[in-house]
Amino acid sequence: LDQLASGLGWASELLGATSQRAAEAAAPASTGGLPLDDEFTPGPAETDEAVRRRYGVGRNLLVRFADDGIDQSSGLARLLQSRFTDEVTGIGGRLDFRKLEGTHVTPNAPRLPSDAEIRRILSAAGMPLDLADAVGGIREVASKAARERETASKTVADFVLSETQKAREG
Predict the structure, then answer these.
(1) DSSP letters of 60-93?
(2) Pick from 87, 99, 104: which is nearest to 40 by CA?
(3) Cis preceding-peptide flag for 107 (omega within 30 of 0)
(4) Which end of the chain has fewer CB atoms within 10 angstroms, the N or the C?
(5) Who wins on pLDDT, 146 or 22?
(6) Angstrom distance (rounded) from CA 90 to CA 120
(7) Does the structure show a pLDDT above 50 at 27?
(8) How many CB atoms lie within 10 A of CB 141?
(9) Rounded to 5 degrees, what are φ and ψ at 75?
């Protein structure tokens, strides 16, 4: 459990940095209208170095999204395997790999307001309500993104629950 907690703490740092970036991107007014740097922090090289030096969880889940042109999970998988597999015995950590529908930004896709919320926002802003119909046209795309995000979230949650149960039993 200590190993799991250590790994979750490190993952939490990475998720915290990513969440902060997502929040900044979702609220451009907070930047004074200045463009944001669109690079993730930490970057791929920094992430790889952190895994090499201090990542201590030998059982991992990597998620690759089907429409992700900048995915780096294969390289990370090789790095994790080399870190946790004994060179002599070939025995070591476990790596689960899942390929899901979605894109690189699926985990950060925002929830779109409902049609009623859109109409309320437009009304409060004094804008014509027929704009809500135009916005409604993107509902299908938003619904697909929401399903993909929920599937990804469930996949990660199921993995964590499974690993927690194994740690309790073993």
Answers:
(1) EEEEEETT-TT--HHHHHHHHHHHHB-TTT--B-
(2) 104
(3) no
(4) C
(5) 146
(6) 60
(7) no
(8) 11
(9) -65, -40
Across 78-108, b (16+ Cβ under 10 Å) vs e yields ebbeebbeeeeeeebeebeebebebbeebbe
Nearest to 57 by CA among 14, 22, 28, 25: 14
Question: Considering the entire predicted model, what is its pTM?
Answer: 0.62
Nearest Cα residue to 143 out of 113, 103, 166: 113
Cα–chain center distance at 11? 11
Q: How many residues make up the chain in this entry? A: 170
- Which residue reads 């309790």 in tokens? 168
Question: In the structure encoding, which two tokens stand for residue 69, read together?
Answer: 């042109």
